[in-house]
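Journal club side-thread
Mid-discussion, someone asked how the predicted structure for our own chain would compare to the paper's figures. Pasting it here so we can look after the session.
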Amino acid sequence: MNNDFLIADLTDEEKNRISSHIYIDLFTECWNWTGALSGRGYGRIKFRRRMEMTHRVLFAWKHGPIPRGIRSDIPILDHICNNRRCCNPDHLRLVLQKENILKGNNRAAINARKTSCPKGHPLVQGSKQRYCPICRREDARKHNIKHPPTKEQRRRAVERVREWRKTHSRHVGQP
């Protein structure tokens, strides 16, 4: 089932109602919405018996269908002008959620752009997140000084190393 948001054409009444709530900024060419806003600052309008985001209505009318849904592989609309009130369809583009988030100035985007830790060491990609191996070793060293391992912990660590050597030696079976 195709669940795309599509508007083949706007009636004259719909065009007049929408345009009556648009203020065009001649400097930025943004079509600023002066009607109702969502809690996040996007224009909202009752359109064909449903509340819709104004920029989605105008984009679908001018450029074609917009996929509906919330999944990482479904593109969303991105305001190129970074103005949430703008409903100019030429200021919008379909992008993946990840690209839209990383373009911003939120914590996730800022951290994604970092290439070094606060001390200037390069970050390394781990299995789940990036980290600084130099600072991690330093922190572990400080932790071990404050909290030295017990005899039992040391004995288990030695045993793990022996087991590893047995399975990873060049000549299995030789000490």
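Post-session note: The longest helix spans residues 151-168.
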